[in-house]
Amino acid sequence: MDFQNFTTIDKSWIGLPRDDDAFKAGVRNFIDYASWDLEPDQNFFCPCKDCNNNKRELVSVVHGHILWNGFMQGYVDSVYHGEGDGQVRETTNTGNVVQDDDEEMSDLLQEMNYDASNFYKLLNDAQVSLYPGCEKFSRLSFIVHLLHVKSLGGLNIKGFDALLSLLTKAFPDAKLPKNFYEARTTIKGLGLGYILIDACENDCVLFWKENADKTSYPVCHASRWKTTELNVDNESIRRTPRGKNIPVKQLRYFPLKPRLQRLFMSSNTASYMRYHAKRRPNDGVLRHPVDAETWKTFDKKHPAFAADLRNVRLALATDGMNPFGNMLYTHSTWPVVLINYNSPPWLCMKEENFILSMIIPGPKSPGNDIDVYLQPLIEELKELWDEGVETYDISKKENFKCRAALLGTISDFPALAMLSGWSTKGEFACPCCGPDRCSERLSNGGKYCYMHHRRYLPAGHHWRHQKLAFDGEKELREPPHLMNGDEIAQQLAHFRQLQLGKNAKQTGLTEITPVTFEHNWKKKSIFHELPYLSSIICFHNVDVMHVEKNICETVLGTVMNVEGKTKDNLKARLDLINWGLRPELHLRQEGDKVVVPTSSFVMSPKEKESFLEL
Question: How many C-beta atoms surround the C-beta of residue 373 within 10 A?
């Protein structure tokens, strides 16, 4: 057989029944062509309906898969198996080349470092117009737009297939995919997919690396697979249903390295990756993370990393969300997003420039066990710090080793406890004060009150000497010492890591080594595996939005005396009596009634009307 002329052979046998002799002969020819230069024990992509060119198998296994399952739909041009070079040239010479909005898409594909087969297939779709004479869309860009519409509108697969069917009838000359499967397969070559990692239902462990082949976790003994409950002789028995095993939980992890490489492969973003050093104004105004002390100190301690301006600084943000949009159904899914701090401030905080790192499944919040799910990301971050990844910089037309560092996390206050390991509840809740706390428990309010904020004022500030307006005492102390990375590392050196998992307490595995200092640590965070963590001044940060929102709601609820929202309630007045503060606000007994004096800061009805008219 002339393997080099395989593209001229009639491939009509691909659509024949699998028991047809012509189909079997065609499969043999295909296998011979695709494996003619492979070793007997070498694997290659399997194009059967189940594998979809996503798995590599031995030649004999691929042969059996195709005979049993048939070819994947739409796989006529064998671009994954050596075919396509001449075919792409023919298409690009005779087809309609798109010159309008798709120039950017074509440029992007030409800048990628993928293997030749994927590149040719993508280049083919990027060059071929949607229909003869179309100068606005190529086939690839139109498919991308369609899938974007599906995502924005929450359209299910059935509805998407119906839309494609309607478009095909209305525009018969358009080169549209037949269904969602074919559309998704077309863009898979872009290389920005995700990895599915099975997880324990109790958040104990990921079935990954050394646990990849386990069917249950030895500690909690929970099954990796979904099971059904049967009642046999009045005894409840759980068993795995027949057929394909279905994981109870799955983490969706989006590898970071190819996404960082993409930033330098596109001419639209590569030049911005050096903005922090080359293009920003250096006028002393804090407008970008590079102007903060955290960045400057990090560069001083790691000059080799700072020497290459293209090395990437990242931040991690996460919070729980209900993906179903129905608050009656409690479900907490946690997306973890990375933010590229190399880019300008008007770009790095835009939604389209966020790097989705993983989606932690619900239905419950991972809580303290979020470290279990962060393992793949931390491992990749360590590799990016130690070794980097080979990357092509289109702006300089050269390859370089791209390294990356995580400079901090951004979250609300409860999530800060999950990420840092410092509990944000109780006597030591303030992570800034640490052991040098100034907290008092309110006997009537039943909560801790964090007083003595005047310590943060300048030494000569006149409020420090006012007694009656505050707690009845002068405040002459210095601000509390902010623990640095080295001090935190010394504290956690005496702390034994606890066993993660929802049922760890029941199994008695949450032993903590007694220490001689007061603290609020509940675990040693997985971020401490990063070799540079101790050199970062402030790693865990509370996002501005939550601070502004909560403070604004509290102030407005108090000054407008909103029932259920004001902090100036009956319990607060009783605590003032116990502390002997603000006698003008103490409750008074007048006959059979208890009078609650009106606070000076509460708005009158007319003041409320004037305020709401603004």
Answer: 24
What tokens were used for 331? 């479900």
How far apart (Å, rounded) are the C-alpha atoms in residues 481 and 497? 26
Per residue in 100-153, pLDDT (tens digit) is: 445 555 555 554 444 434 544 665 656 678 888 887 888 888 888 898 888 888
In 3D space, the residue among 46, 45, 48 whose CA is nearest the CA of residue 72 turns out to be: 48
Closest CA to 374 of 353, 389, 354, 359: 359
Q: Which two tokens stand for residue 544?
A: 């501005």
Distance CA 331, CA 333 (A): 7
Element (H, E) at 259: helix 257-265
What distances in angstroms separate CA 466 from CA 175, 350, 440, one per listed residue? 78, 45, 20
Measured CA to CA, the distance from residue 568 to residue 584 in angstroms comes to 14
* SS3 annotation, 311-367: CEEEEEEECCECCCCCCCCCCCEEEEEEEECCCCHHHHCCHHHCEEEEEECCCCCCH
Q: Which segments of the chain have a pLDDT < 70?
A: 1-11, 36-42, 73-127, 189-191, 229-243, 279, 327, 495-498, 504-517
- What is the rounded distance in angstroms from the CA atom of residue 137 to the CA atom of residue 146? 12
DSSP annotation string for 50-66: TTTT-SEE-HHHHHHHH
Residues 6+ apart with CB under 8 A from 312: 260, 263, 273, 340, 341, 342, 402, 403, 404, 405
222 CB contacts (<8 Å, ≥6 apart)?
A: 200, 201, 202, 204, 216, 248
Q: Per residue in 519-554, pLDDT tens?
A: 778 888 999 999 999 889 889 999 888 888 888 999
d(CA 94, CA 78): 20
Strand 228-232 with 235-239, pairing? antiparallel
